Amino acid sequence: MISINTYIKGLVASITLVAAVSCSDPWEDRSNTNDNNLKQTLSERIKNTSETSEFGKLLAETGFDNELSNSKTYTVWAPTNEAMGQVDPVLLNDLASKRLFVQNHIALTAFSSVSKKDTVTVQMLSNKYLEFKNGTVMAEANVVTADQYAANGLFHIINKALEPKSNIWQYLKGKTGSNAMSSYLLTLNEFNLYRSDSIAKANEFHEIYADSLTNSYLTNVYNLNNEKNKYTFFLLQDDAYNSEVQKLEPYLTKSNTDSTTTYASYFTARDFAFHKAVARENLPDTLTSRFGVKVPINKANIVEEVQLSNGIVYIMSSLDVPLETRLLTTKIEGEVPTGFSRNDKRANTFYREKEDLDGVLLYDIMVQNHGVPLFAINYSANNLYSTTYKVYWRAINDIQTNTFQQSLRFGGTVMPDGTVSDPIAELPYTDVPPNTYDEIFIGEFTLNESGRLDLISLIAANTGVNGNNTLSLDYLKLVPVIK
Amino acid sequence: MLKILQLTSLLCILLFGGIDTGLYAQSLSKSTTVGSQTKEGIQIKGIIKNAVTGKGISGINITVKDFSASISAEDGTFTINVPHLNSLLIVSGQDYQTKVFPLKNKNTGLEITLFEASYSQFYQTANLPENSKLQYNNPNAAQVVDFEKDQWSNPVNQSIGNFLQGRIAGLNSVGKSGVPGAGAYLTLRGFNSLYATNKPLIILDGMIYDDEDYGSGIIQFNGTSPLSMLDVKDIEDVTVLKDGSSLYGTKGANGVIIITTTRPVDLSTKIDFTMYGGINQDPQELPVMKSGAYRTYLSQLLASRGDTQQQIANRPWMLDNTDSGSYYQYHNETDWQDKVFKASENQSYYLKIRGGDDIAKYGISVGYLNSEGVVGNTSLQRYNTRLNAALRLTEKLSVDANLSFIYNTENQLDQGQAYKTSPMHLALTKSPFVAINAINATGEVSPNLADVDIFNVSNPVAIINNSIGINKNYRFYGNLNFQYDINKSLKANLLVGLTLNKERENFFIPDFGVADIILPTAIAKNRSGSEVQQYFSIYTHGYLTYNKSIDYKHNFNVKVGLRTQSNESESDLGLGFNSATDDFTTVSAGSNLLRQVGGALGEWNWVNSYLSAEYNYANKYYLTMNTSYDGSSRFGEDINFAALGSLSAAWLISSEGFMKNTSAIDLLKLRTSIGLSGNDDIGNYTAQQLYVSQNLLGIQGLVRGNIGNPKLKWETVRKFNLGADLALFNERFNASVDVYENKTTDMITYETINTTSGFDYIVSNSGSMKTSGVELGLNSRIVNTSDIKFDLGVNLAQYKNEVLGIPNSRILTQFGGATYITDEGQEANLFFGYQANGVYSTTAQANAAGLSRRLENGSLMPFAGGDVIFEDLNGDNVIDENDRKVIGNPNPDFTGSISTSFSYKRLSISGLFNFSVGNDLYNGVRQNQEKMSGYENQSRAIENRWVAEGQQTSIPKATWGDPLGNASFSSRWIENGSYLRLKTLVVSYDIDVDSNYIKYMKLYASGNNLFTLTDYLGFDPEFSATSSIFGQGADIGLMPQFMTVQIGLRLGL
């Protein structure tokens, strides 16, 4: 007889074994992280890396260790302890500056040292955009050790701290009082150069688009407060600036001298900001402003070069832009009228897409067979100078065999009866012969005050005979004459 | 059809006409037999002993068939006259297993030991198509499972297919899923066909039990299994016939499972009442990322899509400011699996009454069960009744009636790859930071559920609470079997039966909380569906049996018969979309423009005539010959009847005289068989030329639907089997070993044809395949005392398949994201994909390797750091489909089970372990969980993903849309599916009752799937999503089989 006890012991033992074995879960091995790096958050990793412990301390001090422990993905460019020692103490003298300093080292999402692009522009938490080149250079710092990883992102160890820089606009603001050009630009916070500027400022809401809307210069030229783009800005020393303004004043005569100076200043300054940061060594002889003005650059006149977060400011002892290039020809496209003398001739109005004799595409307007004497197409022009203009047109008469005539009238006020009183100039009727594609000189007129002309009319012959009262215009060219 | 009828009648005339003469001859010899019974014979002496105590037993019947009978004395001794010393004694007694005992030329000193009922596998009765016989005498490879032992403790949610798992060597039963009533995918000895069925034929109470699902399964990835309707407690025994199944002609190629239900045994009335209650344990959750890790993952993933830092920073879930208006919606920690999986209950009540008198005996059962699933509110309610009766109408005429009616109501949910509506899939992949309920900007939680989230992912709780998925089905299955005893040797039987199966499926998926689906012409908000399936079959079976023994040495057994079966199936379905509100849940409430209707019809007929002749000499040499002659409506026009047959032989070495002194060997039998069987699952109408309707710009017309093949015929399987049965040491050790080879010829294949024909393929009999294997069944009693008994059993089975020939080149098939290859010279159905060898640690390493992948736009994209290192097989430096190879085999190296049973006085404990070794699985669930290409939440393992140059890891980086195919079907997703499972553990206690009313009272505590030992990373390594072999081993995310613990009471009145 075999004792039951032997069996029970064996049974208990085997059941225990089975239970123990069954508790081991194949997922345990798989989902457990063996990689110590992945067990730590970025802030822990940076703190525990001896090379970057100083920066780690700063993270803790500014509270960013919490941010870097959360579940977003970050990339940190952590300066070595040595680099931290070389940081300008001014940048770390209060908590706000320290936070900004730290934010300038952290970016959302992961940026590996290997990328398909040579240069990756990275938006830091400071809202500054820094360039990460070839995975080895971050802004002005070199990467010492790349691609350290943690549970929530990467960090690269760099040999120089990424000190947060101000942007061009902040820099210009700082120059207010010491530099006439900067002071002038700041006055444009209040002054509306154009009607649209006041609308923009009225629409400024919270802080969205606030930078570009609150200053007439930023609205009309470039938003130098925008961190996302890079700009090159030429800041003139007072003498140079004043001489440029004076040079322009005769052409921007307004009703009073203050206004004249303001507009002359604007027309001076607007051509000194350029898109993209152009390094000194890459500066060409001539830069073209967004308004089409060719600005000759003489590197010898650069007094100082200031690298800023969204570009470069060159402080110039002189930047002389000749009037020949400064004063711009105004071209009015025929196919973009502002209105007509009457609005019932849409069926006779043709917006045409044609080729000239050289096969070059052109767009023009032709109003034909409308049966109305003195039918007129109205145009307007902005930014006109207070000077004499030579007027040219190109008008194409290609589907009629006869010559017709049309004339131009500048300025004036539309009276309630439809007539126009007090025009600035009325040029005589000029022939439009068939199949002529040349630009033709029409005449001259003189403006005493610079600014906007709301009414420029192309007027048909005073006849109801169709074929003779045709209007055609490719473009008008108003060429300013230097006094 | 008419042709078949004519042929059938002709066949009948031929067969029965031919037999008539035989009958006459046989009845002549019958008289000599009767005469010989008066002979004295030789007197022999012996003793009957109890195998446990070794003491003699009194009152045991000892008989020699048709010759003499005797009863053992007080001390167990007996004397009996036998015709010769090769006679077989039949020894039977109450509470003991009836057995046979060969004399082996001995006439004195016979010692016969008896074990308790249903002990030895060799003295079980096999219900074979020819007749019923003891396994001892059986020349075929068959195995019998006696249900009495384990049926009463069977877990409520385990159907017969699952119950058979591990109990028969070579019967591979794979539980389809954990859905209540899902049943099991059954194959016997591997597989013999690629496109036709591999299911064994199921014979229930003498009639074919159809186990097909005729619907399309509108509740996605659910199905029905009629076999699982049977209550395990209704079943008396199951005989699995692995070879020699040619009596079933073109239906026997995959072997036969013969099920016998409740039989009245004796005249006393026996009442069994059982009640069970149990708990279903919810599955262990797969580890998925929590909110924090998920957000980190998302922020990296979106960066890989090209989103700017600003875009990423502005996502509502990235804003950590509580005033942002969406903070509270996206800062939760929801364990979705916890909301979807739940522990549940099951219960069942069952009453069985057996009894009767000389004239009429009956067995009646009624049962109710309620089995709940572990996902949402899935459940199965079943009502079943069964009446089996045996009536003696006259002296010579008797009738057996088997009638059953079963009614199921199933609540189901979409599962598997229903990515928008499967609560299980959603639970694994839905973002953990969104909440179940709607939350407003100030963080107040509404009692209303949250709608589809920001990622357009459905809310699984909304689906569980508000969707409808009901499958109601019933089956009537009944037959009458008339038997007329013409004389003692000759009997005529006629069985007539019918099957009626009806199934009604309804579903409704609400709009609220569920992602929309895109139809060709509309966006579908809510959707509904309804389907009715019907199957009707009439079955007849007429046969004559003739037994004859000459001089008690030459024993003949002849059976001749004719079976017919006519079947009709129909399924009709309608799908509705965009009803006005989620309160209108029927198809008719859907938009008239979008409604879809469809269905299928089937009609097929089968006739089978057969002749079986058995002969044995001196109970030592056995020979069986079977032939059959089949006709089917499925065969092509040019094809006539299928003539098939088999021959089997056995030699009982242990009964030979020279073995009489080797007392250690109780039984040694060699068996062999060779035969041809057929598989007629070739499609009801495949052989015929069909037209299908076609809509062209609103004009309806008919176009040719296929190329009919008038030469299409059954698949032929040549079965060869060699086996041995062995019982040693007083039957303490019993073993059966079989080796086999099944060779399929005329295998159905889809042959690609010239595109100028307008069709892609033609179905033809042009393939061949071979499956061979070994099986071992072993049972032993290790400890055998009157108080303690310990039994150990082992089943092992192994098979190896080889495709011998297929037309055209290799066959590539897809299922659930896996690609399978079937090609000549290798096993069928192998996983075919890329070989992944880790992850590039750095971009420099990837550049050095120089591999790239061609994108859809034709350009080449190089692999970089963090991408998977795929093997470039053809060396062209481009990873494409030419670089795929065999990366796994879903077929196991071997399968089997270990059964143990321990009893101590009235307490008994039994456990059944089953295992599968060496099968590979495609873990499609993990593929979804680790593909890292979209908003789906992922497994915790991806927290180890590649994030930085130089990082050493096996998990690649997260990339939106996965352009480089890091998650494509590759060895990354192939896992070893080997497992060992404690399938059932039963503790039972037989309470000592002293009552006139209660005969016995037994308490059961049983556990199902108590533990599973596996390296597989899915919920469960055992699943089967399809009935085709192309798809086995692909885990598409069905409800896992779960652990159940139940207690029950069985009362005998």
From TrEMBL, chain A:
InterPro entries xrefs: Adhesion/Biosynth-related, FAS1_dom_sf, FAS1_domain
FAS1 domain segment(s): 39-162
Alphabetized SUPFAM superfamilies for the sequence: FAS1 domain
Pfam families: Fasciclin
PANTHER family named in the record: FI19380P1, PERIOSTIN-RELATED
Name this protein carries in UniProt: Fasciclin domain-containing protein
TrEMBL record, chain B:
Matches recorded under SUPFAM superfamilies: Carboxypeptidase regulatory domain-like, Porins
UniProt-listed Pfam families: Plug
Superkingdom of the organism of origin: Bacteria
Membrane topology of this protein: Multi-pass membrane protein
Main location: membrane
Keyword Metal-binding recorded: no
Alphabetically ordered keywords of this record: Cell outer membrane, Membrane, Transmembrane, Transmembrane beta strand, Transport
Claim: Protease is one of the keywords in the record: no
TonB-dependent receptor plug domain mapped to chain residues: 139-256
Compartment(s): Cell outer membrane
Family: Belongs to the TonB-dependent receptor family.
NCBIfam families: OMP_RagA_SusC
Name of this chain's protein: SusC/RagA family TonB-linked outer membrane protein
